[in-house]
Amino acid sequence: MDWTEMSAAALGRGIGAGEIDPVTLAEHFLARIEAHEMTPHIYARLTPDRALAEAKAARDRAKSGRRLSPLDGVPVSWKDLFDTAGVATEAGSKLLEGRVPDRDAKVLRTATAAGLVCLGKTHMSELAFSGLGLNPVTASTPCVNDHDAVSGGSSSGAAGSVAFGLCAAAVGSDTGGSVRIPAGWNDLVGLKTTAGRLSLEGVVPLCEKFDTVGPLCRTVEDAALMLAALEGRTAPDLRGAGSLAGRRLAVLKTIVEDDLRDAPRAAYDSALDRLRAAGAELVPVEAPEIEGPMADAGVLFTTEAWAIWGEEIEKRGEVMFKPIRERFAGGAVFGGAAYIRAWRRMEAARAQWAARMAGFDAVLAPTAPNLPPKVDKLMEQGEYYVTENLLTLRNTRVGNLMGLCAVTLPTGVPSCGIMLMGAANAEDRLLRLAVAAEAALS
Fold this sequence. Notes:
Blueprint: H1 8-16, H2 22-35, H3 39-42, E1 43-46, H4 48-63, E2 75-79, H5 106-113, E3 117-122, E4 142-143, E5 146-150, H6 156-163, E6 169-174, H7 180-185, E7 189-192, E8 212-217, H8 220-231, E9 248-252, H9 262-277, E10 281-285, H10 291-295, H11 297-316, H12 322-329, H13 336-357, E11 362-366, H14 375-380, H15 382-401, E12 405-410, E13 417-422, H16 427-441
Parallel strand pairs: 2-3, 2-6, 9-10, 9-11
Antiparallel strand pairs: 1-3, 4-5, 6-8, 7-8, 7-12, 11-13, 12-13
């Protein structure tokens, strides 16, 4: 079989059965990366010495029956905002050019302790502050379905590394949709974890109250195994989770279905039909409580982002991509009172949402209301960049504002995903549901 088409879980099983040598596997991916025409647009830098050393250790463990996890020996990529000891971590920005941490991020240390093999660091939107993945400062990763279009951001290279077969799985981050958008646009599974579940130690911040770590993968099983590796625990048991019969799913109507482009709407409607045919009860639900926090999103996100990065941007902002710099600067106009009022309104809305959705197994929405925009148009038309970026992140932002976990699944229509949102810290339950939904959609 072609290893680049196999899931991370399948590769792990092959290693465990003695059918795949982890060193040969790492060498295979490194050689493919070296030869692939898209590599400069996907990987910011490689870590071949580390990868081969980790693969050799995984091979020794496999031979002696001491594997550390189901993914021990499986090669993955890391978004370039996770600190890597002795290797530059620049978060896609000239502001951090030459920044070399002396210690791995905590989630990277944990994943390494589970045997994952680090292939390298992937490109991203500058300082993670865009859902499009356009980054003329470093590199823009193309969408696997349209090489003239962006891949989605901010975990753009993470998605590209999996979609183009340059790793088995990837680790990204999601503050307003930065795992789910690139996963959705590249026909992958993307898991947004609950804020605070996975450590942000050694992760370059954007908005620490919203920043989350999550995997981009080929399958739900991979996402479950990656989550377990990132937090150092046993993966949730997905066996027997293949039926949607009796599941109640809320079909969110407020905001997320507004202005859907034709292809995402058709894909979403078709996906709903398949979930219904598989036995799920789909209930349309209005949730007007999200309207306030959605309107306050500019205050909530940009105020914190400016507080973290404003001083550095004021000193050297000329090295940044102008639309990113201007988005950060938007946070400078809000005072502390406006920020606190917005947080209070959001916390009240979260309580209303939790009460409204308590009787449902998950809440459904289109992952993105649009398709990946063309790079040329984004570069040429400044206002188009702004409006398309805000539209791109609109639906995914619901999960961040309501403090949820969420997963995006491919619908079978290129670059059109469907999102399932679950309660805070209910990732295991959500993943079991997602396995059943994945089967119904495939």
